[in-house]
Structure formats: structure tokens, C-alpha cells
Amino acid sequence: xxxxxxxxxxxxxxxxxxxxxxxxxxxxxxxxxxxxxxxxxxxxxxxxxxxxxxxxxxxxxxxxxxxxxxxxxxxxxxxxxxxxxxxxxxxxxxxxxxxxxxxxxxxxxxxxxxxxxxxxxxxxxxxxxxxxxxxxxxxxxxxxxxxxxxxxxxxxxxxxxxxxxxxxxxxxxxxx
Length: 176
Description:
The protein is an alpha+beta fold and 176 residues long. It contains 3 helices and 9 strands; from the N terminus they run H-E-E-E-E-E-E-E-E-E-H-H. The protein is elongated and about 75 Å long. It holds the Pfam family bPH_11.
């Protein structure tokens, strides 16, 4: 290889590295700006009550993230809601608790739940036929989001789906 070709190759490699670094920086800035815009919309998440009844079911799996309803691909990035992690979903008569690895737990009160269903896709994740458990619920701020969870064994969804009927407030609204 002559020196002209070597110098040209090194310059091309350096330009390529700079372009990739700039693209990554732009993506990170976009993620942060999206989180800032959504912070007001999302507001504060509900706190788990001091006392809850006995757990009706517990499922180990993965927390996939939250999306703004009804768009299955509009990921929520505010706080730590946009990060996937291992999780344990526990169903109580008062609501659903998602305990996530390296992230804050998410408490979904029963009266906030609009629907519990299975989906094929959510926020960049496409699963096997109806492999994702999607919980649609209303935040205290009034925004409605879907929270995605994927269990290792999809047969475990039955208890959560059966108990996932909307709270009394949503039943009245839906009946009208």
C-alpha cells in the first residue's frame, strides 16, 4: 500500500468516526428533549398504599416500557419509564405492582386501570402472537399510558387478565 492510499484511508476512517459520534450525540439530545416535554404530561406516578391485600398472582419477566395511548410506538422517556429491565409483576386486589431491576417500582391503582390485554407489539418490541401484556391506565395527571410486560411463560397472564377488569369509575364511563 502506498502512502497516499494509507493517508486517504486514515482520513476516511477519522471522518467516519466523527460522523458516528455526532449522530449518537444528536440521538441522545433528542431523547433528553423528549423526556423534558413528557415530564409535564406524565407528572408524578401514584405511590403504593401503606397496606394492600394478599397478592393474587406474581409473574417474573421483563418490563418493556410505557407508551402514550393509543400509539403503541410513542415511547415514554420521562423519568426512568423508558428503560427496559427485568421485573416482577405482582397483582393485588388494589392494583398492580411492577418491581423493576435498577429502577423505581411502578404502582398502578386498580381504579386507574382502563384495560389489561395482550398485544403483539409495543415500543420497538415485537413478540410472538400476543406475547406482551399491556396495561392501559390513567395517570393522576390525566394522561393515559400503556405499560408493557413480557413474561417468560405466557400462560401466567391468565390470572392478571382475569383480574384486570376496569375499576368502577371506568365501568360507568364505558357503559354510557
